[in-house]
Amino acid sequence: MPDWKKQFDAHLEVSPPVSDEQLAEIPAKRGVVLLEHQDATPIVMITAASMRSRTKTRLAEPHEEQPENKTTKRKTPDLREITHAIRYKRCGSVFEADRAFLNLAHQIWPTRYEKLVSWKSPWFVHINISDAYPHFARTRSEFCGGDGDYVGPFISARDAEKFIGAIQDSFDLCRSIGCLRNAPNGQKCAYAEMGRCVSPSDGTISMDAYRKILAKALAFAAGSRDELQQSLREQMKTAADAQEFERAGAIKHRIERLEFFNGPQFRYVAPVEDFRFILVQKGLTTRECKVFFAGGGAINEVGTLVYPTDIKQVRGVLVKIEKLAAGESAAGGAIENLQMGLVARLLFNETAHRGLVIRWNPDITPQQLAEQIEEATDDLALRAPAVRKPKDKSVSGKAETPSQSE
Length: 406
Fold this sequence. Notes:
The protein starts with 9 loop residues before the first strand and ends in a 31-residue tail after the last helix. The protein contains twelve helices and twelve strands. The chain has helices at residues 51-58, 79-82, 94-108, 157-171, 177-182, 190-193, 207-221, 226-241, 245-258, 311-326, 334-347, 366-375, and strands at 10-13, 31-36, 42-48, 85-90, 123-127, 137-139, 149-154, 270-271, 277-282, 288-295, 298-306, 356-359. It is α+β, with helices and mostly antiparallel strands. The protein is elongated. It has three domains: 3-90, no CATH class; 123-266, no CATH class; 275-375, no CATH class. α3 packs antiparallel against α11, α4 (157-171) crosses α7 and α10 (311-326) packs across α12 (366-375).
């Protein structure tokens, strides 16, 4: 038996045409469902909030006038007639179901699984300062791969481009790689003429000096922003004291421009090495939650916590996470990119399906993690067991009769 088959909870044999009665064994719970042909060949796999309901829909009787498939010019096959077995796997959360779908699809359809998921790898901003023509550029081709530095994630290419533009404006960087190729024998660009580019293209500064500016810009992009902001405030005060109000105004504008980096679309931007998160998600019942660790291009399930949480249990989960965080990163590739894309999608999810997301910090204590879980009980749908009130033994089942003296 292939390993991927062991990852499902159950295997249900059915007889075509599949009826609703045959699907009664499938739980009306969230999870992943796989339909199989007579020879055990996988047909289609789906995720669902209710596996039973979604399977019924997929196996519903087709309309009489069934449209043709635009790609193959053939009618879509009647799944009722070709489905002979159903496998299913229960999941507590949307994230867990999507992760299970990705991993199973990767094993079942290794050559086309990327086309079966509804998300892509996240965007990062990359720069290799030692390049002949160093510049910031967006990328999603590989996770933690290649030379140079990466910062992110960004949920869209547009956000990555806006981030690059803001960095260029904040540090007066060259906007065109073409200008860099002409350095130091080129001409000043329009930005340089306006005083908004340090102009390495015409040799105003050397490429070595330009690389030092890029290093500061990279540090700022990666999150080290206090130094620049403090420096600008001091420059603005100096200019104002010298009654150089135009210069002070320009510096004030730069300080205000830096507020752009505090936008919600950039709240998780950090060096790619710091793309490590503890993800606490709904469990299979209201008494438990599942904990995952995302880092190094992989997502690992590290344990299930019973609510109310026990500190010893939480400590055990953190020990597993520490070992994973200290281990080697994944080798890279499409599956790792899509796993991190799934995490990035969760980071920017503002719905109730988000669960609890915590950036990994080696100093986090079991008490702190337990407290954050307690604060997120509504999002995690956690409920403590009901406390039964003890019966009042003084109350008799029979009514007392008054005494003769009364």
